[in-house]
Design goal:
Elements (H helix, E strand, L loop, with lengths): L1 H23 L14 H7 L10 H37 L4 H32 L2 H7 L1
C-alpha cells in the first residue's frame, strides 16, 4: 500500500514538474537564477538512496514541502509568463512605459513571491535533514 501511494505521489509530482517545465520552456520565475539549489528535485532522485537514508518522518515532511513548493510555483508560473508576454507585446506595440508600470510591478511581485517560495523550501529542507544528509543533496 505504501509503495503504491509513493509511486502514485511520485508520478503526480513528476507530471506537475513536466507540465510546469513545458509551460515555461527553460524560463524560471525566480529573481535569482542558477545560484540557489533546487533541493526537492535532487531529494526525489535520491529518495530511497542508502547513503541519504531518509527516515519515514523526514519523507513525510519533505513530501509536504515539495507539494507546497511545486504547487505554489505552478500557480505563479501561470501568471508570470503570460504577464511577461503581455508587457513585451505592449512594448513592441509602442505602449508608453508609464502605462506598463503597474504590470511591471505585478511581475516583480510575482517573481519575488516565487523566490521566497524557493528560499522557504531550502530553509525548511535544511532543517529536516541532518548536516550529513544536507551535504549529499546541496
Amino acid at each position: 500500500m505504501k509503495i503504491n501511494f509513493l509511486t502514485l505521489l511520485s508520478s503526480i509530482i513528476l507530471m506537475l514538474s513536466i507540465t510546469t517545465s513545458n509551460l515555461s520552456a527553460k524560463q524560471k520565475p525566480f529573481l535569482i537564477h542558477g545560484k540557489l539549489p533546487h533541493l526537492t528535485g535532487t531529494i526525489m532522485q535520491l529518495w530511497d538512496d542508502e547513503d541519504l537514508a531518509l527516515t519515514s518522518e523526514q519523507k513525510k515532511k519533505l513530501k509536504h514541502i515539495r507539494i507546497r513548493t511545486v504547487g505554489g510555483l505552478s500557480t505563479i508560473k501561470g501568471e508570470v509568463f503570460p504577464l511577461e508576454n503581455e508587457i513585451v507585446q505592449a512594448s513592441k506595440d509602442g505602449t508608453n512605459p508609464e502605462e506598463l508600470e503597474d504590470s511591471v510591478e505585478k511581475l516583480a511581485e510575482l517573481r519575488a513571491e516565487a523566490t521566497m517560495l524557493h528560499l522557504r523550501c531550502i530553509y525548511d529542507t535544511k532543517n529536516i535533514l541532518s548536516k550529513e544528509q544536507f551535504e549529499l543533496v546541496k
